[in-house]
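ok so heres the complex, two chains, lmk if somethin looks off
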Amino acid sequence: MRILGISAFYHDSAAVLIEDGRIVAGAQEERFTRRKHDARFPRHAIDYCLATAGCGLDDVEHVAFYDKPFLKFERLLETYVASAPRGFSSFRIAMPVWLREKLFLKDLLYKQLREISGNFSDRSKILFAEHHFSHAASAFYPSPFEEAVVLTLDGVGEWATTTVAIGRGKDLTIEREIHFPHSIGLLYSAFTYYTGFKVNSGEYKVMGLAPYGEPRFKDLIMDKLIDVKDDGSFRMDQRYFNYATGLTMTNRRFADLFGEPVRKPDVEPLTQFHMDIAASVQAVTEEVVLRLTRSLAAEFGIENLCMAGGVALNCVANGKILRDGAFRNVWVQPAAGDAGGAIGASLAAWHQELKQERVVQPGDAMHGSYVGPEYATAEIEAALDEAGAVYETLEHSDMIDTTARALAEGQAVGWFQGRMEFGPRALGNRSILGDPRSPDMQKTLNLKVKYRESFRPFAPSVLREDVSDWFEIDSDSPYMLMVADVAENRRRQMTDEEQALFGIEKLNVVRSEIPAVTHVDYSARIQTVKADVNPEYHALISRFRELTGCPIVVNTSFNVRGEPIVCTPQDAFRCFMGTELDLLVCGDTILRKDRQPAHLKQTYEDKYELD
Amino acid sequence: MSFLQEFWKFLRVRKKFWLLPIMLMMALFGGIVVLTQGSAVAPFIYTLF
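and the predicted structre for the whole thing:
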């Protein structure tokens, strides 16, 4: 039996197809339309899923949507009524959208599905799961656990912003919820807005900025903005926020509390103040999730924790949960944001609605998150021929060797292999790679390849068997969702002069043997690589280790700032020609920048709107 | 028609009958506003709705 999961109309629309409870294909719409966070109906992603499964929409038994529009509408109306007449400006914008389309979402879905297949005529095939239940299902069902506590945290779904559920076998039961407007995700987003980044996409920049600052506002936030109880439950003082009824996240009282107005992006530079703000909200978030996880572990006596929701992408907090040890095992859904709701909705339909048994997969059931499109060598060559590229196709082992040598020489490499990743992270199939030992690599990749802020850290991909030699962690982190410190013996002691540096000045100090992936606080966002999950990537890093003694490469997503991660060989070639990447490897096909025709070079820097 | 049935069912299950007059008023007066607006995927600062 096939079930199509859909997440759409808010942000990051996506489609996933499951067959008898097994994930067969999944992709985000943005990858096909090349529009970041594309929220439209995921027509391209659905076409891809159906083509991969070799079926049509007529062969799909159910379509599961990740959210319940009536419940969300109820929340909106109640919020507006409760705060009237404040909130009229937001009401005036929201209501037409709802009365025109969103309230009739089932009809909208039905019409769009009928465009795919005129035979689609049974409206009862369309099922709806609650937003947080979709998140919880995406966290528990693919996890390697028979039994687990499931914690979901995000901005807001219908009413819930934080949910605790218990998963056992095929059963998943919500135990308790924290409701809007009290939301740890929206608290983080409020500070994202306050520090001048885009809400819904800039949160990870705040997380990246945090280590440059001191959490000197933590107590102020805990005193004034959020009341956190010992068990991690919380309430927020809405007098400081504007998101419930206005069109901004924070208000004047919020700015007055911290003493500076909202930063204007691209006009006002980031200062130590913003770094301290970032450090403070990060510290508060960690405090909340640690209190939550400790109390849940004590209450339920279960040793496994599953997490999803946008806040579960906060890998710094995840690393602390893991090290805290309240739960022995922690598994985070790699597509923890709303795109992953498509996975959860489809699996919820399979196990809850259709009451099908669950078979726990060793490792997990996400297939390394490699469930997107892939291209055969012939297709890659045809695409490159059409683009006028100069390339050579090597034997597989030669391709691995050539790429590893290029990395060892300090080249920046575009690495395009196998099936595209589902979720926000590139995990070694649509990645830009570099040598982590190079002191200049972080700056080079940020400024010349990715065209993004120089403070942004890069993540290491490390062979699973070597991870504990280099980092203070000895567990799997296949999805780059755990942060751990670089091992003591790999660190370089800073001089007194270097110690005295503040904030972003610290960036230029070499802090370890692998400076390109060592953040200013010695932390690193780790991806462990196993041969059975991604053999090509494992082979490449192994060869790099043979050449250099270092079992690590820098891994960042294959895109520039504001661009969705590349999907096709054409996208990869365009990005290659628009940036200062030295080498592009698509399957076994290798392209060197200095051999490409000059007229194919593209101006890429300003092509995408900044995020 | 199926929408009305489903919405009625929703109000019954959730016991939120007090939303009904608001809905009726909006259906009456909202039409004009609705017809003058653009797409559902509006670029809001934060799409809470």
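quick notes: Chain A touches chain B through 43 residues (CB under 8 Å). thats all i got rn
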